[in-house]
Amino acid sequence: MDFIIVDNYEEMSKSAAAIFVENVNKKPDTVLGLATGSTPERFYELLINEYKENNVSFENVTSFNLDEYVGISPKNSQSYHYYMNEKLFNHINLPSEQAHLPEGKTDHLQEACEEYEQKINTAGGIDLQLLGIGLNGHIGFNEPGTSFDQETHVVDLAPSTREANARFFDSIDEVPTKAITMGIKTIMQSKQIVLLISGEKKADCLYQLVNDPVSEDFPASILNQHPNVTIIADKAAASKINK
Ligand code: GLP
């Protein structure tokens, strides 16, 4: 794993945006894997700025998001579809038919998972995957205990994850109990991975990722076995590691 340690959240976001812009400029039909959460918000703003300044075009890019809640419609402001439209897709020239998220509002969840995995394969796999990390080490919505062999699947969200994400909802009761997520196997097949981690709250999490053995109890630990991972951390998140 390569580490880029920067002063603060803004620098982390800039550093990630530079990597993504460079990749898309080198390979205009790049397949991107995208993430939600509060960590990449500034990163998306910077990508929009780069697009508006004509430094990058997303016309030929295809994207696949990591995850989506089950049971809420793409129009619902709490959905990850809505998040991506608001924070990125509505502001760049990525054609909507090339921007994919798992379909969480369907009676055919199993088929939706299989179709999603197939679409990723048909696109040639993910070239560059963006990841955030949950406090319990989850990536996408792969909670502790998820098998490393899982492809896109339906998960029961851990109570701690529902609590952490309740800040985006009116109350914890509204936070869905299930989600669809790319599996660890799907994520590990990405050719390159960039993980963003920011803030003191995540310092223990980064410490565990770096020092603990690879284990399904801490899903992100698998990244130690990927050949091309860059972790971009701000000083606060990196305060417990020696890098
Ligand atoms: C959510 C998402 C993850 C994200 C994580 C961290 O549960 N499913 O993809 O990385 O939480 O979120 P945040 O960046 O808000 O800390």
How is this structure best summarized?
The protein has 243 residues and is α/β, with parallel strands linked by helices. It contains 7 helices and 10 strands. The protein has one domain: Rossmann fold (3-Layer(aba) Sandwich), CATH 3.40.50.
Kindly describe this structure.
It contains 7 helices and 10 strands. The protein is an alpha/beta fold and 243 residues long. The chain has a single domain (2-234), classed as Rossmann fold (3-Layer(aba) Sandwich). The strands form 2 sheets. A 7-stranded parallel sheet has the order 1-10-9-6-2-3-5, covered by helices on one side. Strands 4-8-7 form a 3-stranded antiparallel sheet, with helices on one face. The model has no long low-confidence stretch (mean pLDDT 96). Helix content is 30%, strand content 17%. The chain has helices at residues 9-26, 41-52, 80-87, 109-122, 159-165, 184-188, 203-211, and strands at residues 2-6, 31-34, 62-65, 67-69, 99-100, 128-131, 153-156, 178-181, 192-197, 229-234. The site of 2-amino-2-deoxy-6-O-phosphono-alpha-D-glucopyranose has 14 residues, from helix 5.
